Amino acid sequence: MITTFQLKGLKALGALVLIFSTVSAHADGHIYKANKPASEKTLKLGEKWSTDEVARLGMDNIRQAVSVSQGDIIQGKLNSQDYLAIADVVDRNVTDMVKKCKLSPDADKAFHIVVLVDLKGSVEFMRVSRNVQTQRVGALAVLQTLRNYGKYFQHNGWSFN
Question: Is the pLDDT higher at 118 or at 24?
Fold first, then answer.
C-alpha cells in the first residue's frame, strides 16, 4: 500500500512539474529566459512595484471570487465544479489584464513572473485534472499568489490573508 501511494505521489509530482514548466515557459505568449534578470530595476526593502487600474481591477475581481470560498478551499470542502468555476474567473481576469494593462516595463515583467505565470498554472491545475485534490492544489496556489501580489505590488486597500 505504501508503495502504491509513493508511486501515485511521484506521478502527481511529475505532472505538477510538467504543468508548471510548460505554463511558465509559455504563459500569455511571452517566453521568459532564465538567464536574463527578471527586471532591470531592483526594489529597495519595503518598496513595491506600481500597478495600473486594469491590474488592480483584475486582481480585485479574483480576490473577491476566491475570498468567498477561501475557508472551503483550505478545508477541502469544494467539489470539482466549484474549482472549475474559480478557474474560469481567474482565467477571464488574467486574459483581460494581459490584453489591457499598461505597466512600466519593469513592473510588467515582475507582474508576469510573480503573478500571471502562477495564476495561469493554477488555472491549469483546476481545469486539466478532475481529481478534486489536484484541483484544490491549484486553488491553494491562487490564494498564495494573492498574498504575493499584496506583498510585491502597490494596491491601496489590498488585504488578503
Answer: 118
